[in-house]
Amino acid sequence: MASTSIPLLNLSAKTAIRAALFPHSSTIKSRHHFSLPFLPSKSAKSAKSTPIRMSYNPTPATDRLISAVSYTLPFFNSLQYGRFLFAQYPALGFAFEPLLPILGLYRSIPHSSFVAFFALYLGVVRNPSFSHYVRFNSMQAVTLDVLLVVPLLIQRILSPGRGGIGFKIMVWSHNGLFVFSVLCFLYSMVSCLLGRTPHLPIVADAAGRQI
């Protein structure tokens, strides 16, 4: 009995000494045991390997062309507001000389402004066969054209004359409207040719509610 108890005492003594010297050895092993990296499942691997495809639908060329041409309606009707700038800066008129043949053809048609307005509104805006892109741009052009008529109506009602502060206000408003209409025309043309949707200030919200 004495011979068999000595190894057990030695084994228990070694275990006690090891536990005293390395008190965290068991926890370290357990930590290493539970800190194994998580092995992803087959579904996770398949989800990572599945490529993500992004759909891109470019605007058709015909839609871009029709949308760009629709903005010529308010642009042609706004050229009358530039007569004071053309008189003050004759060199500015040279930039618009290439448009004179087209403008002359447009003005040669009786009531061309009304014909183009109703053709664009009834033939394009209210035509469901056209895409939303074309209809929105056409409605935006129609709305801008209507807003450009308002200053002429105010001018005819007030009749500022040929001098005084009223005439100066009229000249400033005409110059501002002309610059604004030209910038809107260039911005809208470039955006439509690139397939993007132009959003004109004030006009875009009013046009969006009508579509």
Overall average pLDDT: 79
Helicity level: over 70%
Low-confidence runs of at least 5 consecutive residues: 1-14, 19-56
The main β sheet shows up as: none
Could you say which structural class the secondary elements and strand pairing correspond to? mainly alpha
- Supply the number of helical segments: 12
Give the termini distance in whole angstroms. 103 Å
User: How much of the polypeptide forms β-strand, as a percent range?
Assistant: under 5%
Overall morphology: globular
SSE order, as H and E? HHHHHHHHHHHH
Alpha carbon gyration radius? 39 Å
Record field, number of beta strands: 0
Q: What can be said about this structure in brief?
A:
The chain is an all-alpha fold and 211 residues long. The chain is 73% helix and 0% strand.
Can you walk me through this structure?
It is a multi-pass membrane protein. Pfam families: TIC20. Keywords: Chloroplast, Membrane, Plastid, Plastid inner membrane, Transmembrane, Transmembrane helix. Its main location: plastid. The protein is mainly α. It has a domain at 63-207. It is 73% helix and 0% strand. The chain has twelve helices and no strands. The chain has helices at 2-21, 25-34, 42-49, 61-70, 72-78, 83-88, 90-94, 100-108, 112-125, 132-158, 164-193, 203-210. The relative contact order is 0.11. Mean pLDDT is 79; it is low at 1-14 and 19-56.
Describe the secondary-structure layout.
Layout: H1 2-21, H2 25-34, H3 42-49, H4 61-70, H5 72-78, H6 83-88, H7 90-94, H8 100-108, H9 112-125, H10 132-158, H11 164-193, H12 203-210
